[in-house]
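Collaboration report, partner site 2.

Our partner group contributed sequences for two proteins of shared interest, and the home lab folded both. The records are reproduced in the order in which they were received, starting with the first partner submission.
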Amino acid sequence: MAGRGRPKAELVLTDEERDTLVSWSRRRTSAQALALRCRIVLACADGLSNSEVADRLGVSRPTVGKWRSRFVERRLAGLVDEDRPGAPRKITDEQVEAVVVDTLESTPRNATHWSRASMAEHSGLSKSTVGRIWKAFRLKPHQSETFKLSKDPLFIDKVRDVVGLYLDPPERAVVLCVDEKSQVQALDRSQPVLPMMPGMPERRTHDYVRNGITSLFAALDMATGTVIGAIHRRHRATEYRKFLIKIDKEVPADLDVHIICDNYATHKTDAIQKWLAAHPRFHVHFIPTGSSWLNMVERWFGELTTKLLQRGVHKSVPALEADIRAWIDNWNEDPRPYVWTKTADEILDSIAAFCKRTSGARH
């Protein structure tokens, strides 16, 4: 039986054309539209019908037909967007590609990353042109973000365990995020702080005097947002055990206690394990190593730092401790619980996508 539909244009590639198409479709710096057109042509050259190519690449059949015909008529040049009306371009595709490739794959001799000025000098283009190219390709060499992938062999199990407690806490139980903020410094400026005035911000000296340190133990109740705090001059297993005793006294006796904490050595000593065994209502859940973002008390520590410690002035450790206790009391008068929204599957999918995206990056 004769095939139905409009006959498709026959498409045969030379070895050179195939190599070029494969290179354009795989190179990270290629425009995504051009890379898709290359994949369409390669699939057509493998003998697939327009419908099969459309299904495989997730595009419409007219799109496949368009680029099949364009390639047959004009070969590789047919895959490039047609000229648009207006003044002729002064920057060639080769110059744009050179800027993108150099930005991604090289660094200047005297710096760790390119600036608009250094790239302009290197490429012979203006700084504004370099800026427009970077904006078009979403390149920001001046920015850098930190990341750390956990190497915990039980990473997936621990993520599911902790996130499960956040999203679906057990009945007749309290979920507490526990951690220590160790070595909190009592800092005093070398000269008095000048208060804010109209047209003038608060001013403080850049140097300071250290007046000692203390450590804060905190347990954030995920349901209510309240915090159980304890301050000790040291943060050994002995102090951690005292903090567990305080939690045991403050949480109603008819509730189980689920503690989320990190893998710090003081949380796993024999003395702590013995105490936990004697208090079976306590259940400990460890976050994966290198995953402090999973412990919500870190978010609360961040607020404590920015709202009290960062700009605070303390002439002694007792003064610092008194301010911390007062800040916790004030917080507990109007607690604001943090709401966890992402499921474990969403987190794991996000990490998998990040790994896939960066697997070919230069180390």
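Second partner submission, folded after the first:
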Amino acid sequence: MSYLRPLPGLLFALAISVYQPLGHAAVSTSYSFANITHSNAGAEADGEANLNVEVIDLGGSQVRFTFTNTSTSSLADVYFDDGTLLGIASISSSSGVSFSQGATPLNLPGGNTVSPAFVTTAGFLADSDAPVSPNGVTQGEWLSIDFNLTAGQTYSNVISALALPNNGGDGDLRIGVHVQGFAAGGNESFINIASPIPEPEIYAMLMAGLGLMGFMARRNKTS
């Protein structure tokens, strides 16, 4: 009967709403990276598949950026082209990783090849201590950089800026990383992708919604 046809879409919408239970509030959002230097196709694919940053709400006007790298390359430099951050509060890392505020060079290598150009905010950068590659972030390791936020800014503002509504222009927040020692050879630079990585529970919710739609479609055909 025709009045049953809207039900699959309605049930899918209801399935989506299940993902947001009462009192639920997201506390972190993860992003992957896109290559900007294109020096080696193998290294480019390696970095895009294995580099991630998790942006965590610490409360008290602080946000943490935790970098991981699941390949054998070494994440050696981190840069921020910023619209919401006030300054680095602290840097911490797993065993085997050693970073300090400041970096050489002062701007993301290859940052001038994107439009608008990636321009590192003064003081918003860190690199691995010598020896550079051994102290960078590689498999099973992590690096966290905590930032104080500018007055009136919140975690939500940071996430909005990371969405790059101005295509990397004023007010947006871009994160650049320089990575060395790829198995394929060479060094590469990457910038965060605007869209966050879907959390596993979102995939589960989508599959549940699609299952409901399929079930209702079959039911309508037999009715």
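Feedback sent to the partner group on the second submission included the following. Residues 23-217 form one domain. The two ends are 7 Å apart (CA to CA).
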